[in-house]
Specification:
The chain is α/β, with parallel strands linked by helices and 291 residues long. The chain folds into two domains: 172 residues, HUPs (Rossmann fold, 3-Layer(aba) Sandwich), CATH 3.40.50.620; 93 residues, Pantoate-beta-alanine ligase, C-terminal domain (Pantoate--beta-alanine Ligase, Chain: A,domain 2). It is globular and about 55 Å long. The strands form two sheets. The protein has a six-stranded parallel beta sheet, with helices on both faces. Strands 7-8-9 form a three-stranded antiparallel beta sheet. Helix 7 crosses helix 8 and helix 10 runs antiparallel to helix 11. Helices cover 40% and strands 19% of the residues. The protein binds adenosine-5'-triphosphate, pantoate and beta-alanine. Pantoate binds next to strand 2 and helix 7. It catalyses: (R)-pantoate + beta-alanine + ATP = (R)-pantothenate + AMP + diphosphate + H(+). Keywords: ATP-binding, Cytoplasm, Ligase, Nucleotide-binding, Pantothenate biosynthesis.
Length: 291
């Protein structure tokens, strides 16, 4: 595995791959890798001849300086994991190369970025869209993979790539969970054993609400019960727990064909996000309830 830190070496490595006729899949990350990231790399290998992963804790997507300061970092272990997963290139750009003096450009995906995470983490998606555009332009992958755990991020990136006409296919990868259902996330490292136990209420509340809504129960009470379950488990702040259209992320008050339940809530000092799809038993393809 080539470990690359400077833009010239990245350009040379990408050119060498292209010259040898190999296709490239990219997995952008912020490091502190876990089995979810390894799964992305394994999936990436199914889509191309070679896989490049980037590790860059992007400062511009952190709205909270304390969150950035305590973001987990474990570069050595990350590199071992990427090599073991069969990555050909590990790219670890510096902040100076990504944001040189005088940097003045922001990529902003309007509309879809403003809700949910965008509302609670002001400027977050401008930071994500800008860095992802830069990462994709620099690495020139044929395909790039992102996790459904960050469902809104995936939606924003699909819009970004379509709107800018970037020549890359975006692949979403279903969320990897631990044995008891908690979505793997680098920030889970901040959870105490007790908080981790109580955090399970989040995927459970999503599953329960999804089941109720899929079975045709009214949406409002299902969401209210889910929020109450989070409060009972000790979640201090629920930023949102909502049923949305899976393509536009517009909130829904009743079931449709293409739905997603999305949630963000804080336990202790750790903010968790999660989501599940809702497959309705009661809404037909035409959008009307079956008779
Ligand atoms: N459990 C998971 N299953 C599938 N993909 C995941 C999972 N966790 C993270 N990813 C994906 O890995 C990529 C890199 O994510 P990132 O490095 O921010 O890790 P993270 O675990 O999401 O950390 P964070 O604590 O910042 O949310 C993103 O596309 C993200 O959606
Ligand atoms: C896509 C990403 C690598 C951009 O910094 C980050 O938001 C992440 O890891 O999900
Ligand atoms: N995994 C999403 C990136 C972030 O929370 O900043």
């Amino acid at each position: 595995m080539q470990i690359i830190r400077d833009p010239q070496s990245l350009r040379a490595a990408v050119k060498a791959l292209k010259d040898s006729g190999k296709s490239l899949a990219m997995v952008p990350t912020m490091g502190a890798l876990h089995a979810g990231h390894v799964h992305l790399v394994n999936e990436a290998a199914k889509h191309a001849d070679a896989v490049a992963a980037s590790i860059f804790v992007n400062p511009t997507q952190f709205n909270d300086p304390a969150d950035l300061a305590r973001y987990p970092r474990q570069e050595e272990q990350d590199l071992v994991m990427l090599e073991a997963a069969g990555c050909e290139i590990a790219w670890l750009p510096t902040a100076g190369d990504m944001y040189p003096d005088g940097f003045a450009t922001t990529v902003s995906v309007t509309g879809i970025s403003k809700r949910w995470e965008g509302e609670h983490r002001l400027g977050h998606f401008d930071g994500v869209a800008t860095v992802v555009a830069k990462l994709l332009i620099a690495c020139e992958p044929d395909v790039a993979l992102f996790g459904e755990k960050d469902f809104q991020q995936l939606t924003v990136i699909r819009r970004l790539v379509a709107d800018l006409g970037l020549p890359v296919e975006i692949v979403g990868v279903p969320t990897v969970r631990d044995a008891v259902g908690l979505a793997l996330s680098s920030r889970n490292a901040h959870l105490s054993p007790d908080e981790r136990e109580r955090a399970l209420a989040l995927p459970k509340a999503l599953r329960d609400a999804a089941q109720q809504i899929a079975a045709g129960e009214p949406v409002g009470p299902a969401l209210a019960a889910a929020k109450q379950a989070l409060v009972n488990a000790g979640f201090l702040k629920i930023d949102y727990f909502a049923l949305v259209d899976a393509s536009t992320l517009v909130p829904l008050s009743e079931a449709t064909v293409d739905m997603r339940l999305i949630a963000a809530a804080t336990i202790g000092k750790t903010r968790l996000i999660d989501n599940v799809s809702v497959i309705s038993d009661t809404v037909s393809e035409t959008g009307s309830p079956p008779r």
